[in-house]
Amino acid sequence: MVSRTEAPVDTYAVAMSQQTQYAMLRARARQLWVQLTEGDKPWVRVGLGASGQAAGAEEVFEALKPYGPDGTQQINLSLVGAHGLMYLEPIVDVVVPKINRVFHANVTPEMVPDIIAHYVDGREQHPMHESAFAYADHRDAFTTHLPNWDELPTNSLQKKVLTENFGNIDPLDIFQYIAQDGYASLNKAVLSMTPDEVLEEVKTSGLRGRGGAAFPTGLKWSFLAPSPAPVKYVLCNCEEGDPGAFNDKGILESDPHRLIEGLILNGYATNSTHGVVFIRQGHEIPIEATRHAIDEAYANGILGENILGSDFSFEMEVSLTGDSYVAGEETAMMEAIEGKRSTPRYKPPFPAQAGLFQKPTNINNVKTIAYVPSIVGRGGNEFKNIGTESSSGTALVCLTGHIKRPGMYEVEMGMTIRQVLEDIGGGVPDGSERIKVLQTGGPLGGVLGEEAFDTEIDFDAMAEAGAILGSGGIIVGDESTDVVDLIRNLVAFNQFESCGKCFPCRLGNTHMLDVLDRMCKNEAQPGDMKLLETVGNNMKIGSLCGHGQLGYNPISSAINYFEEEFEQRFNGELEKSGPFGDGSMILPSRTRP
Amino acid sequence: MPDPIQFTIDGQQVEAEPGQTILQAALEAGIYIPYLCYFPHMKPYGACRTCVVDTEANGRKMTLASCTATPMSDMVVETKNESVSELRRGIIELLMSEHPHGCLTCHRIELCGPQDVCQRHVDVTDRCTICPKNERCELKDTVRSVELDLRTPLNYNRRDLPIHADDPLYDRDYNLCIVCARCVRVCDEVRGDNALTLVSRSGVSLVGTSHGTSLMESGCEFCGACIDVCPTGALVEREYKWEKASRQVTTTCTNCAVGCQMIAEVNKFDKIIRFRGDVNNEVNLGQACFKGKFGYDYVNHRSRLKRAYFRKGGILTNATPDEAFNAAAEALSKYEPHEVAVIASPRGSNEDNFIAQKFARVALRSNNVDHAHNFIDDVSEHISERWDTAHTKRPIWDIENAHSVLVVSGNPTEDQNVLAVPVKRAAKRGAKIVVIDQRETELTRYADVWLRPRIGTAHMAVMGIVRSAFDSTLEQGDFIRERTSNAEDFKAALWDYDLGRIATYCEVEIEEFAEAAAALASHREMAVLLGADTVPKARHDALVDAVMNLRLLNGTADGPGQGVYPLYFGANSRGSRQMGCRPLAAESPVATLLCDAWGVDFPEGEPMGIGEMIEAMQGGTIKAAIVMADGVNPTARQLSGLREALSSLETLIVSSVFDNEITANADIVFPAAPFSEQTSTVTNLESRVQLVRMASESRFDELAGWQIFRGLAKAMGKTGFEYDSASELFDAICATIPDYNGLSYDALEKGGAFTQTQTDGNDARSDFEITKPDFSPFARDGFYFAPGRVLHQPDRENTLGERNYLNVIDRVELIELHPDDFETLGITEGDTVAVRNDQGNVVAEGVATVSDHALRGIIQTTTLFAELATYMEECEYPDSSPTVPGLDVRRVTVEVVAKAPERELVAV
User: Fold this and answer.
1) N or C: chain B end with fewer CB closer than 10 Å?
2) Cβ of A542 and B46 within 8 Å?
3) C-beta of residue A100 within 8 angstroms of C-beta of residue A421
4) What CA–CA distance (Å, rounded) separates A449 from B94?
5) Do A60 and A108 form a contact (C-beta atoms < 8 A)?
């Protein structure tokens, strides 16, 4: 065992050469990876993330099974998470051993025999199926007509830090992760770095919390680290209830081990003993993937007593929310994990003083945690060099709405919103004219008008523009979007999801929704705009937690960019809005299945 | 102790203890900040946000909720500046948008009198008259204090919910609820019951029960704590719901030995209309129970006795008090001292008890005097005589400091309700609870170890724990060496207490003793709740010895969390014992003391307790008796035979509030003044003497107990009873009884006072009690019935019925039996059986089921606590509290009412 305090500089290399636990895991992983990529059979991977499944990837996977190990054994078959290019789902990706990769888009089960025939029954006899849209690695005779995967505009403009394994590895196979150098950072940390050194790397990286508040992560960890309590918790928050945000779930369903590694590193850096991954009830795929990954990690000595042969021990489990959005608020989340009604607590005491079960606790977002392995592995400075001065790293952006190429894209901080929309997202779909409005950062975020599209994606620049980057969701609305109706939908969501504890939020949201409802029905009353402002500001100062404090955000930002439209609504100059054209709306029933 | 924090509120210099919130410090300094969800003795919640204040500290300005924020030194707090007032008004405006507020907006408020007919200036559903708390509403006061302009543009949303008026004792109208969650929190945090919860979320978030069930199924103990904290009219007592109080009197509840301080609200007709716990006292911290909160009402009943009367040949004749005194004196003069008995009342004050025993001993020269509910006499006697009474003078909330709590043979949840609250709170904080009881009670649900020894063997079970603790060397060696002299002898004697034999004798598994020992003997802070419900009188001494041995080995003395709480029945059992109103031997120190004070010899004859007196009446030795019948429960198991005994007397003189089974045989009846119509003192189980204050004057010939004895003595020509007032009598008591030296009504004015400890030093060196074990073989003489009762049975399906428009529990009870007993009783599983007591009354009926935890010879059943609330509602006798049926263990017979239906063979 290596002593943490007197570690020589080259301990890591020494440990690796001495056949440590990790070296053995890695050897096995390499062997498996080589078998898949350089064996004699094509390796077929199907994106079975939520976006793939929604597009019918499950049926495609079923159709592929007869060729796989349980059938004729002509191919190796794996499931992977999401590639991020959601407009192309279901994506089937075939590795032709030692040559290249070919990607097929929008695959249906009927296409499967034709696609597979090319790879197993003779490439000459069977032409490549027309669903192929890109190749990677080497261009060969069969892929001359295809663009290179890395040169696709959706990919070339991305900076993949978090998502480097997306679509490449099976989230349910720990060895595929280890084959991509997974858990190397953890191994390095627990064997050759002190907790303080790990914490220092995170501080150096300038990483800021990706959950919405953008609090410096290293600073947050340093509140917890000195506490001498025998039991300390690090929690990972994957409540992610924002409509239009799916990147946390994306990480869990595509690369759960990255999160687990990050959370263990978080625990190591803060001398904590327990980790809890808190996932929203109903996110079945991420829940299963994470549970499976934790089991695998325990089975391979990566969790539990003496992780990877070090003297650091750490326990981890998955805990589920009720069907509640506010459960994502950090103190409400602790209440939920304790088995209580998920309503926020007042602060202070802050979680680092008395958190889960009154023990010192840190809470971080999934993305924040998932950056940590690469920060520790490559050094904080490398991460610091990505992105802008104040917001280092990348942003995982979820594009939805009126956009040509909806999906999940990782871009460097500092890219403008317009670049993301037009160069990556491809602009408005056919039939639309222009992008009118963006809704960013979830329903408590805000909306942006056209004049703000040149804002850089950066925590501070976004906040200045009146929106928040938050979870990274960007919902795009074209010229047909009725802004007041959009805001009404957001407020309806906030109203429905208010936990009902503090008075301003419980009642204020209801009254704001009332006013917006009137406006959409062209029944606005004098003083309504003033009323929105009064109630909104009272909520902002008076509420207990962020849900109420930010509840006025969507309205205030919309008034900022679309004041004219609000006035028109107020004066009844527009048609009644809503899906039925009578001003009514479809009230949210449940936010998740 | 860290220094207090200095800061300013609205320019005024204020001091806060560390940990105090800004709101608490402000209220203490007399600065009012409006608040709604905060309530004393509960954790801050931070929901209503009406207590927002502007703060500035270290250059940082913040707007904070003062109920959750703690002050920093030199912080500047502003509670009334324009911005914060505006915010506060905005929040309350939101709140009023869903609370009917005609009481604030109607322009006739200033003109409208309480008796006026509403002139319909406001919507029907919004009128002040729909709210039972009109003019006594905390919300209204709060809203007025912020000077809200009620011309709000907000939509008014009335919830239009049905009123829950079908549960016993209280009404819930959630149209008036503001969701401050005080009720939910008091039920959870303070009472530990969790009968209420918040349901749903967002704008429709509301208080309710977890599955929308009736309170009868939700685990409610009908303590009324939620009513007392509700700031609106959402929760109210159904009785006198619409009545307004014109004044209030703080008094002591006389329904059990806890002695809760209650605020009696009195209306303008001098009628007590409400009882609520007084938050500002140390006894109950504002808590009450179903008996105390709802059982005061008998004092208003119209069938109360108003005049004294004689019964001659079956004819009743009214009399003036003097006529009655003379007649009684004449009747009593016929008897020899040993032929007369005096039975004091369980509600009787110290004054009544003192004069009762003085009257018996001096005027009648009889030694037959006791108080009617003196059921655990030997237990408490033993403690107070052989052990320092300091043990039993810990406040009940001190139990929260205990690391373990031992509950022996008692059911505080029903008999001393508020005493069970700190036990439950301690359990929630992680204290180990060990219950020794055959019956399933609420506290057995909190028990880490629940020992169920055979009935009558609790003492041996405790010795089993003692033996097991020594075996595992869990004893506190230092303490034992320092404080005891016979530890080695005791350990040697323990060889006779073979765990195997004890286990067989008690029918308890050996391992359970070890578990109990581990739970109890880990810390010195062990509180003991000592009852004797299921312990035969002959074993009381042995039980106390065993418990005291356990305390010694555990090093438990008189520090925090180390109290002994004797589970007395009757409000003033402890006081009556201290007054000498109990069987006293002539040579006992108390007897000597009394005789010296009175200047007479102690009367001759064997002293008799209540049990012996009943036997003597039946045997004809006692021919006349004076009974103070207020609060006597003739249906109590320990008083079985009382009715027959009284009917066999030649002369029976009774003082009673109502005509009842005892006055039915009486020759002379005095109308008794209930607790609310006299000033007196009672002493609770902590040994705290408290004032019972007069809430209203008696209107007819009602007499306090001491006045009756004074009158009788005068009529008999005896001197020494000429007390002019209760306070004069109390001064005489204080002069006579050493424990009360120095007390007076004035000294008790604020929060009462503990009695003095006279026998200090006893504790410095205490010895183990060494006795030979008695493993005398147990004859299986029929079946015992051990009824249980719990608040909540989520595992049983409950069906509700309706009776008199009220919900009642309507389900088939399970009569649980040991598998071997079915054959003996000739019944099969599934039969409907009736359980009958000695008198032939059915005490339980239900379906016989095999139970894996029933002992041989024991018949068990577990019912729901809510049936007691139903009892309180339906009881025909106006004074319902004393007669609430307890969980009496008694000998029974079982008979089949209906055979089990033949099981149909189902094809697989």
Assistant:
1) C
2) no
3) no
4) 31
5) yes
Sign of the dihedral through C-alpha B615, B618, B623, B628: positive
Query: What distance in Å separates the CA atoms of residue B251 and residue A425, rounded to the nearest whole number?
Result: 76
Reference A544, options B36, B180, B49, B51; nearest CA is B49
- A341, A497, A507: residue with CB nearest B94: A507
DSSP string, A285-327: HHHHHHHHHHHHHHHTTSSBSSGGGSS--BEEEEEE--S-SGG
Closest CA to B232 of B95, B409, B362, B53: B95
For residue A559, how far is the Cα from the chain centroid?
29
Q: Which positions in chain A touch B70 (Cβ < 8 Å)?
A: 348
Whether residue B40 is preceded by a cis peptide bond, meaning omega within 30 degrees of 0, is no
* Residues of chain B contacting residue A502, judged by C-beta atoms under 8 Å apart: 46-49
Residues from chain A contacting residue B47 (CB–CB below 8 Å): 501-503, 544
pLDDT at A399: 94
Residue partners of A83: CB distance under 8 A and separation at least 6: A47, A89, A91, A93, A166, A167
pLDDT in tens, B38-77: 998 899 999 999 999 999 999 999 999 999 999 999 999 9
* CB-count exposure of residue B795 (10 Å: 0-12, 13-18, 19+): exposed
Number of Cβ pairs < 8 A linking chain A and chain B? 99
In chain A the domains, ranked by start, together with CATH numbers, are 39-156 (3.40.30.10), 174-384 (3.40.50.11540), 394-478 (3.10.20.600), 483-570 (1.20.1440.230)
Backbone Cα Rg of chain A: 25
3-state helix, strand, coil in chain A (%, to 5): 45, 15, 40
Q: Are the Cβ atoms of B91 and A534 closer than 8 angstroms?
A: no
Question: Smallest Cα–Cα separation from B856: which of B783, B773, B748?
Answer: B783
ipTM score of complex: 0.88
For residue B333, what are its two tokens? 């003069």
Q: For chain B, give the number of residues.
A: 908
The per-residue b/e assignment along B25-44, b for 16 or more CB within 10 angstroms, e otherwise, is bbbeeebebbbbbbbeebeb
Picking from A500, A504, A538, the nearest residue to B205 by CB comes out as A500
Q: Do A509 and B205 touch (CB under 8 A)?
A: no
Residues 6+ apart with CB under 8 A from A445: A439, A467, A468, A470, A473, A550, A553, A554, A557
Nearest CB neighbour to A498, from listed B45, B90, B201: B201
The structure tokens 């004049």 sit at A451
Q: What confidence tens digit (pLDDT) does each residue in A248-289 have? A: 999 999 999 999 999 999 999 999 999 999 999 888 999 999
Of B430, B431, B407, nearest to B420 by C-alpha is B407
To the nearest 10°, report the CA torsion of A334, A337, A339, A343.
Answer: 40
**pTM of the predicted protein model:** 0.90
Q: At what angle do helices A528-542 and A503-520 cross, to 10 degrees?
A: 160
Q: Quote the tokens at residue B725.
A: 């007032």
In chain A, residues with a C-beta closer than 8 Å to the C-beta of B194 are: none
Confidence bin at B114 (pLDDT 50/70/90)? low
Sign of CA dihedral B598, B603, B606, B608: negative
What mean pLDDT do residues A37-64 have? 92
Q: Is B311 exposed, middle or buried (0-12, 13-18, 19+ CB in 10 A)?
A: middle
Q: CA nearest B628: which of B418, B439, B872, B360?
A: B360
**Cα–Cα distance measured from residue A373 to residue A189, given in angstroms and rounded to the nearest whole number:** 10
Note the residue count of chain A. 593
Residue B539: per-residue pLDDT: 85
Provide long-range contacts, Cβ within 8 A and 24+ apart, for A347-354: A348/B70, A350/A223, A352/A220, A352/A223, A352/A224, A352/A227
Task: With H, G, I as helix, E, B as strand and everything else as coil, classify residue B858.
Answer: strand
HSE (CB half, 13 Å, CA atoms) of A365?
Answer: 26
